[in-house]
Write a structure and sequence with these properties.
six-stranded mixed beta sheet, 797 residues, flat, alpha+beta, 42 strands, Integrin_bsu
Length: 797
């Protein structure tokens, strides 16, 4: 934090957006620097003594940093402490190879880095650091085999008797430092879990079966690196029996976890193999046997036997999860196919645990353990201890091949091989200072590992300037307060900006008179409260709108507006009047003194046809308009305007030929031989117009018009371009030829149409001829040449 100086700050107000971050700081109504920095990380406190104006309360010192600077608070007097991250212990992760002759002790191996950090937290400001994790090769392993010795596991016991040496041999591929232990369990030794008849207490099995007395949990072999010792002791074990199907395995798991010294756990990878072919009892089931005391989670082994099974209930699942996590034990449930669904649900509740399918006689137990260990060791999951009130943590994982995870997935990385390095970005944020104000310690560790990271949290609860406060300062009305961070912090029982009033002696009638302007009736102009005879102005819903003045008669928001902006956006509102920025004037600072917006393309202000007023052109001739008086709807163009004068001076012709000397001397004329010699727009640094006009004889003349250094220049091509006369003979010949050709074309078209018509008619005739049918009857007008006469007298004789 920068050192303080005694430089005072001039008071002024800047209108800010109501949605600025500063509003959050002002709304908090912080009465001290310590309160201010707890609001948000963007808030700062101006500790300059003369920063406040009349009517402003102490809380006006708390604002966002940019607003404080704009309000003329010197940077050296702004209190804005920041958080930090300091690494105290940063031992690099171990690069280890099991083939190397030199072996390291477990405490010499580092898999997580760094090991200790100190974070300084300011409310609302997260601090982020990175943790690295690397699986060390040849890391030591302790494995404890916990077996159900109820009668149904008889054949399994035979296969486990040689487990020690076989498992030691297989584990040599993973680590050169391996230890194994063995324990067994049956059930609580009370009814109704076992039979309590004398004979059944000696031999709980029926028939000719020889079984050992029932027991809850027995530690048969502490963790050892001697596989043959495991085989020897396990070979001596006998099956026992109980009455109900669920077993008392949870009692055994609890004792294995908490009895570290008796079991012989080291600070290495700890594996607990839980082998059974039945379900489990849990908290509450003890009531069946009259056991109501909850499990105390302590070690109760005497002569390697659990002695309090009849006194304490079974532990709950949550209790087991806590103890297994506290003691960094990873659990492998080796259970038969029948109980797979039950133990898979249990696995989901116990972090860093696995479930394997045990064959009916436990013949596959070694493969099951190896597979489960590889699955557990390939995943790292971070957990942290209890967080102080108001503190939150966020995790982001950067795993193998750059795969990132956030949220719940930000705590873990999977598929990690030996030698792989992964990292976690952890962000810690505090929302408030703890009530005790002391440092807190949280620990972060990967589940199933003994290593942990210690994070010390220090909280910024006050400003540095508070340490320089002067108790009973004369600046606080006869020593009635502590002067710190530019303002008075009143002693108990005192109030007022300078602690000038006592809560017990305040008489409103006498003091209100000091809060009326000009002996009026309004107290503090109805915009403030009279406190100890001094007006403290009210705050508005929009924090950047402020009342000020001895009687709160001023404000910074009731000024003229332009374009819906206070003071046109070009000034500040000071006591209801606009104080304009440079180059602006007017009651609403809406009149610009700049003339750049009035410059025309020719470099002249308003094209020389008007004046620049408030940044815009006001044309003197009403026929001109436009932003720079460049538009004249009723005026001819530049070329048409100067055509007659150019024609009379360049060619001694045109309508102004007789008055040329009087009316056309306003420009300088330069003649060029051809159009290529005319000035080009790309060659000029001033506006230039190219013109093409026609005279009365239909001849074209070309010229340019420009204004350079207020001198009007006209370049004109000295020769006219007149069209040549028409050639009569080709025109007449063309017309005659055209008429003939058109006539021939019409005759050809007529002939073609007639041929087509005739062919259609002939085809029609032929078709009718083919379809005609001829009648074979006699001609009605035909008379035969033969006349036959019959004799009427002839009788045929």
């Amino acid at each position: 934090n920068p050192p303080h100086s005694s430089q005072s700050c001039l008071s002024s107000f800047v209108v800010l957006s109501p949605f600025s971050e500063g509003s959050e700081c002002i709304k908090a109504n912080a009465q001290s620097c310590g309160e201010c920095i707890q609001v948000a990380e963007t808030c700062g406190w101006c500790a300059a003594e003369k920063f406040l104006t009349e009517g402003q309360s102490k809380s006006a010192r708390c604002d966002d940093l940019e607003s404080l600077k704009k309000r003329n608070c010197a940077v050296t007097t702004i209190e804005n402490p920041r958080g930090s991250v300091n690494i105290n212990k940063n031992k690099p992760v171990t690069n280890r190879n099991k083939d190397v002759a030199e072996k390291l002790k477990p405490e010499q191996i580092t898999q997580i880095q760094p090991q200790k950090l100190t974070l300084t937290l300011r409310s609302g400001e997260p601090q982020t650091f990175e943790l690295k994790f690397k699986r060390a090769e040849d890391y030591p392993i302790d494995l404890y085999y916990l077996m159900d010795l109820s009668f149904s596991m008889k054949d399994d016991l035979e296969n486990v008797k040689n487990l020690g040496t076989d498992l030691m041999r297989e584990m040599q591929e993973i680590t050169s430092d391996f230890r194994i232990g063995f324990g067994s369990f049956v059930e609580k030794t009370v009814m109704p879990y076992i039979s309590t008849t004398p004979a059944r207490l000696i031999n709980p099995c029926t028939g000719n079966q020889n079984c050992t007395s029932p027991f809850s949990y027995k530690n048969v072999l502490n963790l050892t690196d001697k596989g043959d010792e495991f085989n020897r002791l396990v070979s001596q074990q006998q099956i026992s029996g109980n009455l109900d199907s669920p077993e008392g395995g949870f009692d055994a798991i609890m004792q294995v976890a908490v009895c570290e010294n008796q079991i012989g756990w080291r600070n290495v990878t700890r594996l607990l193999v839980f082998s059974t072919d039945a379900g489990f009892h849990f908290a509450g089931d003890g009531k069946l046997g009259g056991i109501v005391l909850p499990n105390d989670g302590r070690c109760h082994l005497e002569n390697n036997m659990y002695t309090m099974s009849h006194y304490y209930d079974y532990p709950s699942i949550a209790h087991l999860v806590q103890k297994l996590s506290d003691h960094n034990i990873q659990t492998i449930f080796a259970v038969t196919e029948e109980f797979q669904p039950v133990y898979k649900e249990l696995k989901n509740l116990i972090p860093k645990s696995a479930v394997g399918t045990l064959s009916s006689n436990s013949s596959n137990v070694i493969k099951l353990i190896i597979d489960a260990y590889n699955s557990l060791s390939s995943e790292v999951i971070l957990e942290n201890g209890r967080l102080p009130d108001g503190v939150s943590m966020n995790y982001k994982s950067i795993c193998k091949n750059g795969v990132e995870g956030t949220g719940d997935n930000g705590r873990k990385c999977s598929n990690i091989s030996i030698g792989d390095e992964v990292s976690f970005k952890i962000s810690i944020e505090s929302k408030k200072c703890p009530s005790h104000g002391k440092a807190e310690i949280i620990k972060i560790k990967p589940l199933g590992f003994t290593e942990e990271v210690e994070v010390v949290l220090n909280f910024i609860c006050n400003c540095q300037c508070a340490a320089k406060g002067k108790p009973n300062s004369e600046m606080c009305h006869e020593g009635n307060g502590t002067f710190e961070c530019g303002s008075c912090k009143c002693n108990d029982g005192r109030i007022g900006r300078l602690c000038e009033c006592s809560k017990d002696e305040v008489r409103t009638e006498d003091l209100d008179a000091n809060c009326r302007k000009d002996n009026g009736t309004d107290i503090c102009s109805n915009t403030g409260d009279c406190v100890c005879g001094t007006c403290e102005c009210k705050k508005r819903e929009i924090p950047t709108e402020i009342y000020t003045g001895k009687y709160c008669e001023c404000d910074n928001f009731n000024c003229d507006r332009s374009n819906n902006k206070l003071c046109g956006g070009h000034g500040r509102c000071d006591c209801r009047k606009c104080v304009c920025d440079a180059n602006y004037t007017g009651s609403a600072c809406d009149c610009s003194l700049e003339t750049a917006t009035c410059l025309a393309k020719n470099g002249q202000i308003c094209n020389g046809r008007g004046t620049c007023d408030c940044g815009s052109c006001k044309c003197t001739n009403p026929k001109f308009q436009g932003p720079t008086c460049e538009i004249c709807p009723t005026c001819p163009g530049v070329c048409a305007e100067h055509k007659d004068c150019v024609q009379c001076r360049g060619f001694e012709a045109g309508e102004k030929k007789d008055t040329c000397q009087d009316e056309c001397n306003y420009f300088q004329l330069i003649k060029v031989k051809d159009r290529d010699k005319l000035p080009q727009p790309t060659d000029q640094s001033f506006p230039l117009t190219h013109c093409k006009e026609r005279d009365a004889n239909d001849c074209w003349f070309y010229y340019t018009y420009a204004i350079r250094n207020e001198t009007k220049e006209v370049y004109v091509v000295e020769t006219l371009e007149c069209p040549a006369g028409p050639d009569i003979i080709p025109i007449v010949a063309g017309v005659v030829a055209g008429i003939v050709l058109i006539g021939l074309a019409l005759l050809l078209i007529w002939k073609l149409l007639m041929i087509i018509h005739d062919r259609r008619e002939f085809a029609k005739f032929e078709k009718e001829k083919m379809n005609a049918k001829w009648d074979t009857g006699e001609n009605p007008i035909y008379k035969s040449a033969v006349t036959t006469v019959v004799n009427p007298k002839y009788e045929g004789k």
